Amino acid sequence: MRNGHYKPNCRPIQRIAIIVPYRERETQLKIFFLNVVPLLYRQQLEFDIYVVEQVGGRLFNKGALINTGFLQSKIDHSYDCYVIHDVDILPEDDRNYYTCGENPRHLAVLVQQFGYRLHYPEYVGGILALTSTQMENMNGFSNLYNGWGFEDDDFYRRIKNAGYKLERTPDKFAYCGSLDHKAAIKNKDGCEIFMRYGRMWRFDGLESSQYTTLKREKRQLFKWILVDFDANLLKENLKVSVKNIDKSTLPPRYKGYKDSYCAWYLNQKSFSTIKNVHYTEKPNNTNMPLRTFNTSYLEVPRTATKQCLTTML
Fold first, then answer.
1. On the CB side of 188, how many CA atoms lie within 13 Å of its CA?
2. For 51-93, how does the pLDDT look when each residue is reduced to its tens digit (9 = 90+)?
3. Residue ranges of the alpha helices (H) in 77-150?
4. pLDDT tens across 85-120, in order?
5. Which of 1, 2, 3 minimizes the C-alpha distance to 216?
6. Nearest 5°: phi and psi at 217?
7. What share of the chain is helix, strand, coil (3-state, %, to 5)?
8. Within its chain, how far is the Cα of 240 from the centroid?
9. Which residues belong to any copy of the Galactosyltransferase C-terminal domain (predicted)?
10. How far is it, in rounded angstroms, from Cα 269 to Cα 265?
11. C-alpha span between 61 and 204 (Å, rounded)
12. How far, in Å, CA of 51 to CA of 30, rounded?
């Protein structure tokens, strides 16, 4: 692997771009590479990894980072598949293929920090695979969410609004480990933005992205992009752009689980990932086998002389 790119010794099914929104998670990033890179080797995929880092001084904005990574990766190559990947989520099964299909595909279905269960029916966080056309039809992610929370729920609504049906990896292949980290600052205005701008998704996203690329480097395992943007300015620009729009002409807003959940969400005092999560943990269902994942090795890729994997889930 060189300059963040790997090509197997065979004809790969798809060439994928993995986009990792990132800031101040160096330990998790190292563990991420030790686990995800060997898995992609074994899946015999051609891939590039983009680590998109937000400069300090502003609240973390995951949605804007994903949009930036997508737009920057398209400058390099027109990929068959784009995988949005949290740095602290690690797949535990090689059969959880990093490939795209006719609909957006959720890979992190049963996550360790949620007791190896689907967090809630509309959860699409962790790992999500989609094509360039799908991403553009949904106008990417919202740029408005500063702080932790809501950007994934907003994106699920975009999936429904754009007419797609979310696909998920079958449960028996969809187990994912999770890494502990310090609590993130929550999005205080998340519910207000989620409810107020739900019908504005065609105006808030890829088409309204504004960012400054401060640095761009090719490293051995990944392409590093350091960016800065002002989400508050993006919000003000959105207000101006939709000021004179006849709201009756806007598409209806998909209403789901998060709308009723929002009132409860605002009343919580703090939000963080589960603390003291071990790398080996027994699921709540005692009849299920022990799930483990390795964080200390980098496996040499298997060689192949013929066509790569030809079957997908």
1. 2
2. 999 988 788 899 999 999 999 999 999 999 999 999 999 999 9
3. 132-137
4. 999 999 999 999 999 999 999 999 999 999 999 998
5. 3
6. -135, 150
7. 30, 20, 50
8. 29
9. 105-182
10. 9
11. 14
12. 12
